[in-house]
Specification:
Shape: globular
Number of strands: 21
Number of domains: 3
Largest sheet: 7 strands, mixed
CATH class of the largest domain: Alpha Beta
Radius of gyration: 23 Å
């Protein structure tokens, strides 16, 4: 069954949004606001439908020809068919609507801060690898129409930085028949990371055995180390190479090993981190709690301005690096929800949780012992909005600023400021 639809906006997942004659919302992949399309319904529910476009009857001025050759079937990008200006406006709308509908918060959302690079911006890329028999291996991102399948692709993907893209292609050429130089197993996840100096590290998730990682290092230019994490939650184990590589992160010396987190877009991260520091406004005697701190970039900069800092992070390698960089500071290796109550109150708290947002216990601790100010760095507007509602009894959102960390997708990084209303 097909329908003619006018596309009005972009949903958080990247689909265009229109309405059927019966009032149901229609989510139509690969469409742009202003498009009139003929679409085939592929899923029907009581309140909404999902559809695939059959043809564009009238093309929106926000539409462009996608530059990437993989885009038609690849699930890695969702809005590459939009002009970059339209992408930024779609993300602004997604954040504003999430705050209003989920959080019950009306807040001005300024234009999204653009990424310095629309393409070739990712310093880290994760790809799926499948061994499918007969020494045949496929690797790449998942097929958007068949998510159970992997689209075979290489560094011609336009997202990774040039050195990472070259390393991706070199890795495929080097892993040998049936990817025998990698650990065994039908399904692996490979994360290739590049530094500003061009060094590469590889993290293999899943599988068993160790493969022949030393041979990979010899065959892939720039590859310095190979790590393995056999199961989710396990600590990464070094298979071959150096136990860390050095990264120059906007003037900060960071030693990276295993799966230590840094933002994927170094250009946008520089703007975001500068904004966070402005929001914190550190000074002598201020007490800053940096929760989900990673390698403690915010804490490092605040400490140099005279603040008394405490960091909380679960990843042991990140904590070790934070302690190396801030030997006199208190860095706690723990879940934030477990450690936060004991370190509150603070003058300012910075939180940078994963996509799931704050654990309920962490939000409750902030409400029970609120800081004067909270700076919340979010990679998911929906969970940020939910947490804003949880904090609303005592912490009021006073402003947001959005940063385009992930061009060609609807993901957006948001920095929200809160003030305590009970002080």
């Amino acid at each position: 069954m097909s329908e003619r639809l006018t596309i009005e906006s972009i949903a958080a997942g990247g689909a265009g949004v229109g309405r059927l004659a019966d009032g149901r919302v229609a989510f139509v992949a690969r469409t742009a606001p202003g498009d009139i399309v003929e679409a085939r319904l592929v899923e029907e529910k009581r309140r909404y439908v999902r559809a695939e476009p059959l043809r564009v009857v009238t093309s929106s001025p926000q539409r462009r020809t996608p530059p990437c050759r993989y885009y038609e079937r690849c699930g890695g990008c969702t809005i590459e068919h939009l002009s970059y200006e339209a992408q930024l406006e779609a993300k602004r709308t997604i954040v504003r609507e999430a705050m209003r509908r989920i959080g019950g918060v009306t807040v001005d959302v300024p234009p999204v801060v653009a990424s310095p690079s629309e393409f070739r911006y990712r310093n880290r890329v994760s790809i799926a690898l499948r061994r499918i028999g007969g020494d045949r291996v496929v690797s790449g991102f998942h097929d958007r129409l068949r998510p159970d399948r992997v689209l075979d692709m290489d560094g011609a993907c336009l997202l990774p930085e040039a050195a990472v893209a070259e390393g991706w292609s070199a890795l495929r050429a080097a892993w040998g028949p049936n990817a025998s130089r990698l650990p065994s197993g039908d399904r692996l996840r490979l994360t290739l990371r590049g530094t500003s100096r061009g060094d590469l590290t590889l993290l293999v998730e899943g599988g068993y055995g160790v493969g022949r990682a030393d041979e990979l290092i010899a065959r892939v230019p720039g590859l310095c180390s190979v790590w393995q994490r056999r199961a989710p939650g396990d600590a990464p184990v070094l298979l071959a190479g150096a136990d860390h590589v050095e990264e120059d992160w906007d003037g900060e010396r960071v030693l990276l090993g295993g799966a230590v987190f840094l933002q994927v877009n170094r250009g946008t991260a520089q703007a975001l981190e500068a904004h966070v520091l402005d929001c914190v406004a550190p000074g002598t005697g201020m007490r800053l709690v940096d929760a989900y701190c990673g390698v403690a970039l915010h804490a490092r900069r605040a400490a140099r301005a005279g603040a008394d800092v405490v960091g909380i992070e679960l990843d042991a390698q990140a904590v070790a690096e934070a302690r190396r960089a801030l030997p006199g500071a208190r860095m706690i290796e723990a879940r934030v929800e477990d450690a936060l109550p004991e370190v509150l109150p603070g003058d300012v708290v910075v939180v940078n949780p994963p996509r799931a947002g704050l654990a309920a216990e962490a939000a409750a601790a902030l409400v029970a012992t609120p800081p004067r100010r909270l700076v919340y760095v979010s990679c998911d507007p929906a969970t940020l909005a939910r947490d804003a509602q949880r904090l609303m009894p005592v912490l009021r959102m006073t402003g947001v600023r959005c940063f385009d960390m992930f061009p060609q997708t609807t993901h957006v990084e948001t920095v929200a400021e809160f003030e305590c209303v009970t002080m």
